Amino acid sequence: MSTEYFQRRQYILTDKLAKENLDGMIVTNLIHIRYLCGFTGSSGTLLITADQIHFITDGRYVVQSEKEVRGAKVIIDSIPHYEVINKQNLLSTSQSIGFDGNNVSHQDYLQLSKTLSNINLKNITGIIEKMVMSKDEKELEAIRTAVEITDKAFSEVLPMVKIGVEEKVIA
Questions:
Q1: Which of 1, 72, 83, 117 has its CA at a distance of 20 to 30 angstroms from the CA of residue 90?
Q2: What pTM did the predictor assign?
Q3: Pick from 5, 3, 34: which is nearest to 139 by CA?
């Protein structure tokens, strides 16, 4: 998907955050990160504010993040992601930043609040999930295509399914 496609999602999120009186959000759920910027790896944090978006990961993902991340500046560092945010002064003192408490462990919250003690943290849940529920035309078309492929595959496989036929024969 194009950079503009992800930027539109990011804009919608920043707009929703502003309506909640938040200056931004720290996103740690990898499914949400993929939805918002395209990254499919297994380690990353997305920091979204009204005027900047940063994706933070470690050196294992240099090439992958360059290929996949859209609409965000990529930061590669070996230290914990919250410390990167602090070290690089990516947030200003007293900013109100949301995080999804359903995806942040108690231990992570303690680390987050200690490392970023100069900001106001607010537990918000469901904001990205609600965005994902609403599909645009491109997403609907992808779903339609997936259903058509599944229907065709099922139609081809169904006649092979009989009592006594092993799954590996059909595969």
A1: 1
A2: 0.83
A3: 5
